[in-house]
User: What shape does this take?
Amino acid sequence: MTVAELHVNEPAVLIRIAKLYSPALTPIELYEATRGVWRVGSRKDSVRLALTIARGTVVEVYEVGSWHAAGTTPYVTRPSAEVNWPGRWEFSGKVASHSVRAKYVGRSLAHYFPRGAANPIAYANV
Assistant: This one.
């Protein structure tokens, strides 16, 4: 039986955090790994959600409040040298509502990242 591909219906940025991900991350570590620092373009301004992707699966969903130049908002778990990258961006936001999380967390979005794709960022409905 083939599982139907899940499609993101809201304006969203999908962020693969493969190098930073561990199932043992605390909620704040997961948020900080997801929110920055990324090379993104003007399409970032249209997104409403940021979906954290690890191994092709959504592990968390955040509502994006605003975008900031990388290293300009405080981090609790990441040193400033790790997040202060000129030309890159970070968002501030909060964990999405239960209904939004229920739709995406634990579901595969691997089809948004073609095999061999190196870019950790993908957009949906933007």
In short: The CA atoms of residues 39 and 88 lie 5 Å apart.
